[in-house]
Amino acid sequence: MTLLAPRPLPRVTPSSRPVLTAVVVVIGVFALLPLAALLLDAAFQPAMAGGLGLGFDGGEQIRGTLVLVLGEGVCGAVLGTAIGWLTAACRFPGRRWLRIAQLLPLAFPAYLLAASLIDWGSSHGLRIHGMGWAVLLLSLANYTYVFLLSTESFSITGGQLLEASRSLGVGPWQAFRRVALPIALPAIGAGVALSAMEVVNELGAVRLLGVPSLSAGILDRWQVEGDPRGAALLSLIALAIVVLLVAAERSLRQRSRRWNLGHANAVAQAYVLSGWRALLAQLVAALPPLLALAIPLVWVAEGWRNLLLEPLAEQLTLAGRSLALALLATLLTAVAALLLSIIRRWSPQLVVRQLSFLAGMGYAVPGSVMALGLMLIGGPWALSPLLLLIWGYGVRFMAVSKQGLDAGLERIPPSIDESATSLGCSWTQVLRRVHLPLLRGPVLVGALMVFVDVVKELPLTLSLRPFDFDTLAVRVFQYASDERVGAAMAPALVIMALGVVASLALIPTLESRD
Amino acid sequence: MGLALLTGCSNARKQEVNVYSGRHYNTDKELYKQFTAQTGIKVNLLEGKDDELIVRLKSEGSGSPADVLVLVDAARIQRARQEELFQPIRSEALNRDVPANLRDPAGNWFALTRRARPIMVNPALVDPASLGTYADLARPELKGKLCLRNRASVYNQSLVADILQQKGAATTRTWLQGLVANVKAPFFTSDTPMLRALGRGECGVTVANQYYLARMLSDEAKPEDRALAQKIKVVFPRPTHVNITAAGVTRHARHKEAATKLIEFLVSPSSGKGYAAANNEYPLKGFGDNPILNSFGRFEPSPVSADQLARGNREASALMVETGWK
Hints:
By secondary structure, chain A is mainly alpha-helical. Chain A has 21 helices and two strands. A two-stranded parallel sheet of chain A has the order 1-2. The model of chain A is unreliable at 1-10, 48-54 and 263-267 (pLDDT under 50). The N and C termini of chain B lie far apart (47 Å). Chain B has two domains: 16-115 and 242-286, D-Maltodextrin-Binding Protein, domain 2 (3-Layer(aba) Sandwich), CATH 3.40.190.10; 117-240 and 297-322, D-Maltodextrin-Binding Protein, domain 2 (3-Layer(aba) Sandwich), CATH 3.40.190. Chain B has a five-stranded mixed sheet with strand order 2-1-3-9-4. Chain B has a four-stranded mixed sheet with strand order 6-7-5-8, covered by helices on one side. The interface between A and B is large, with 59 and 49 residues.
């Protein structure tokens, strides 16, 4: 079922094409408007004395971000793919639990991991500081993106494919390298792209660890030095780094396009591991979630006397706000991303392709920069801050939904679309009866990632929330930045609980495919 | 629920005051509740970081809902004044309760609390008696014993601006070169881990805000932290760098009267005490009755005004970059 073929042929009726294009244009405009507003504003600002230079430590900041992105990218890809394969295609004691446990690190904000690790270390004479720790912590916090997307792909890699390769005498390693990995590449690429965008945007953790980064440079340039033009320039560089990465990954993949149709009922004979192999698999799969869990929990175990609990009513209010915002944003991004991805498949005009690619890049724009763009739009129109906030979430996290969807769509051979249309299905019928059922996994995985991301989100929420509207993440950050880790821990644990509960929703999807 | 949130923006003409605040203490909220109980004016609160709040207020312009802006750094409050984010307030109560050197001469802002950034020493490594001023931190015998927080800290920027205004650029540059040469790298990103390192003897001397040490000595702290903090001796240089938390009424305030009343309430001796106590800070007049702070001793505050600190901030930051303060 692996085949090489040209791009899918569009089968959209001529009358519906303008409508579809219009939908993409509307979504694209909403996605690009904040950044456009910002660039326009920056262009009309008086240039600073330093002109458009990079400033005294611009070079250092670019280098810092590049090293972070590459370091985390490699570590995250290896870790996420290895665990994704082990827990999807192999069988060993504890596999099911370990697979669910991979979702834990996603629930911890990286700045909380950094703050509690630094705090714990300084109580034990261990100095947690610098690039090495930053790469380690960010890999730990972000490898789950690669894991989630790759394991979803590994588990639906048709049973027949692996059966066939096995009957041809291909061993497990070879089957992984030559069959499963190439098919999962789009998913792995999507995961790495997402984590790269996350890293480019990371502010709290890298700052605490004393690593120079573009995200910190952007904020300082804009807020401290009062130079929005310089900030816009730096954020364009950050954006360029990510766009280049994503484009490079896509063009590399374009050459080896493979389609694979997952059969939900195809029961692949899994590789059964025993003895030292099983032990090694357990160790590899257990270590990252254990580490992520251990950092805050060891802190809590030692510092429980310092845990400062807010009144229960306050905790519930905070959690309620986080939950409501996350659900709204999840719904919004899921619908918008689905429309973009599907229309791009059905109507591959240049403008549609470009807009849908660009609209999915919002994740790479630093949250604080996007917040400024939204404020520039919201101010003159007197838009409610909450409306702007939801808009911001939508733009920022559309990529999270869309990356997985694009990867999922890539796996579906165009011949399927063609058979369906030749059987008389309209494109809406194909969407409802063919694509949506096949995309259930990526849609759910994407929704989970958006949900957890919004619960953790900081810069947009900080900048756009209205009066008396703190969320859990805002509290965690404010307390942690006042160096009161004890007070930050309680809302952080609630974030973690929300993340775990959301992850549980994913288990049936992951497991039913086995 | 989501829709209710979206449309839940009230701007009815009820008695209320909207506060943007750079402080994040639950005890502040108790004080605001007391204010509401006394005056019937409801306090709506938005807490954030100083720089972020300034940018938000600026970009909101005349449409901003904020009536009061509270910031926790003198340079930031003065920058907000330069950006014309405040309006001048005439109030006898404010002029009576806030000493003249702790408010804007034109009445744009008023200090609410004071905090000091003294020298802190581990006497096992460095003799506290050998340190009289900040200049002594540059002495060569402290090489490898000085720990400092990085230059992103506004507290350090204001400290350097203070020295800059007193001694001029040339002396400050030499002093900074001496400091950086003495630093046990890498620079810290927060004060508490730095104080732990000092207590453990990994550093001999540092500068830190008094409230971080006070917090480590308070009941709020772990016993291990208390034990480390008890090894640390506070040395108040003559004069000591003092920074402020301050508030002003915003230029486009829609509830100017209520805003003025709130600031008057916060600086009044009774509630002002509560505002300072929330973070182990000093009140506007005298040294207060916090037993931990009293155990540190008293200090002679630097004569440099908040206005001067603000004006020196940019040059101070540039000098820190130039001399290698990370």
